[in-house]
Amino acid sequence: MRANIKRNGQRRVVIVGGGLGGLKLASSLRDTDYQVVLVDKNNYNQFPPLIYQVASAGLEPSNIAFPFRRLFQNRKNFFFRMAEVQRIDTEEKAILTSIGTIHYDDLVLAAGATTNFFGNKNIEASALSMKTVGEAMRLRNTILQNLERAETEDDEVKRQRLLTIAIVGGGPSGVEIAGALAEMRRTIIPRDYPDLNASEMHIYLINAGPRLLGAMDEKSSHKAEKALKELGVEIIADCRVTDYQNHSLILEDGDFIHAETVIWVSGIKANRIEGIPVESIGHGGRILTDSFNRVKGMTNVYAIGDQCLVEGDEAYPQGHPQLAQVALQQAANVARNLIAAGRGRSARPFVYRNPGTMATIGRKKAVVEIGKLKFGGFFAWLLWLVVHLRSILGVRNKTVVFLNWMWNYFNYKQSLRLILKAES
Questions:
Q1: Which residues form the FAD/NAD(P)-binding domain (predicted)?
Q2: What residues pair up with 34 in beta bridges, in sequence order?
């Protein structure tokens, strides 16, 4: 097979991964002298901050995803190939993919990260992750199917297990999905499932650290914890999960949580690509780079976003946080440096400017940190809505999400709780 991309005399930049960073880089190189080739295993970009809303039946997958080809219509210097990258051949200056070989002049790795199960095979086989739209759909189907099964289950033990959801991980993803499910229990279960007792539905949030949202200020953590407890979420702090067997989550203190649904949002690891030198891989599988995002020990190869770890930044000795803003800023800087190189100008090192952190907990509940400003509640929730609405791709998607949020705010009567599975 062949990738079928003709050389046209332009210098070719191949981008592996069309997440927020990869897409930002491709967009920044529009109308330049570079030929841009974007390679991704999916034909769409997804918006990770709202994946939990798909998982909790708050939004449809199409609301937070947008096809690459639609984004780059009528761009003569842009090519998209849907493929999985198998390895990098530095001698040939090419990537080997599931559709053939693609040569590059400059290669940018932006393939992101995947869920880290820390080697626990039982948890990996049984727990549900929430990194992609596909995983969110699987989680949504599981939750809704378990509710249907619980409504007709006569065995009390089995019914309780079906109605128990354990979320492992107290970061923003864990807090947000816990809040969304608690809101569902409060507003949806009594109306849609009248034969179920909503009080029998238990939502546990288990965190290995002493407090939730460990990357945020202690005050914000306490606000988030208080808001979740008000919603009825049962928080277990300072406790690790060791295994999952026979529908039971096993905690390190010896306790069990009998749950049919386990949501694992406890950590991530960089997606691995063969052909990168072993000495260029850091902790969490992240690719080591210099301050210009150039991969250690490789020529004309860059890495950005969750997949990379910039060495030498005294402010972030363990690497920059694996957040969307880091990927976007690194992408913009790499694009600027590539354009500068084509014009004979010097490169600029990457310096991360933290725009702030936020997490939503539920209806009218969120926490926000912007510099020294830290606040929560209704106005934090409104700011969270505005920031995320602005970041969604496509006018149609922005409009649909906005109307969906407003409709849900006033009457909670979404009609998105469909169990959709592809026929085999």
A1: 12-331
A2: 11
252-290 pLDDT, tens digit per residue, is 998 999 999 999 999 999 999 999 999 999 999 999 999
* 8 Å CB contact between 94 and 103: yes
| Distance of alpha carbon 155 from alpha carbon 290, whole angstroms | 59
CA–CA–CA angle 41, 120, 57 (5° rounding) = 55
Domain ranges of the chain: 11-41+83-115+268-342, 121-266+363-411
pLDDT digits (tens, 9 = 90+) for 19-53: 999 999 999 998 899 999 999 999 999 999 999 99
CATH of domain 11-41+83-115+268-342: 3.50.50.60
Which residue type, as a one-letter code, is found at position 96? L
Helix pair 172-187, 218-230: axis angle to 10 deg: 20
Q: Do domains 11-41+83-115+268-342 and 121-266+363-411 have the same CATH topology?
A: yes
Q: Is pLDDT at 141 greater than 60 in this prediction? A: yes
Q: Could you read off the pLDDT of 313-329 as tens digits, one per residue?
A: 988 998 999 999 999 99
Which residues participate in catalysis according to the annotation? 176
